[in-house]
Amino acid sequence: MDEHFVWVTTRRLRPGTLEQFETAWRPEPYPQGLRRAFAYWSENGQEITGVSFWDSKEVCDSWRDSEPEKQRRAAMAPYVVEEQEGFYHGRELAVPQR
Asked: Both ends of the chain: CA-CA distance in Å?
């Protein structure tokens, strides 16, 4: 099984700011070593979880320390009330066919 390196961030947003947050959230330039990224949000639009898959923890850490990421976080800051993040190792689980 392939092991994945995953950075997960969950943010609680100010009410009514999901659309503005999503505009600020998109990275520019696109990070080197980022394989895939997903966003999941609550029904009320006040919580969003980002899940990104990276080539390695070192590549992810390099992006997190970069100037473009600092600028991106500054652009998101007006919409964020609270943030939690973590870096994980994992693999896809096999789901039995029915």
From this structure: 22
Query: What region does 68 belong to: left with phi over 0, alpha with psi -120 to 50, or beta?
Result: alpha
What pLDDT is recorded for position 92? 84
**Alpha-carbon span 72 to 55, nearest angstrom:** 21
> Cis peptide before 29, with omega less than 30 degrees from 0?
yes
Buried b or exposed e, range 6-37, using 16+ CB within 10 angstroms: bbeebbebeeebbeebbebbeeeeebeebeee
pLDDT tens digits along 53-73: 999 999 999 999 999 999 999
How far is the C-alpha of 59 from the C-alpha of 70, rounded, in Å? Answer: 16
Structure tokens at 20: 């503005």
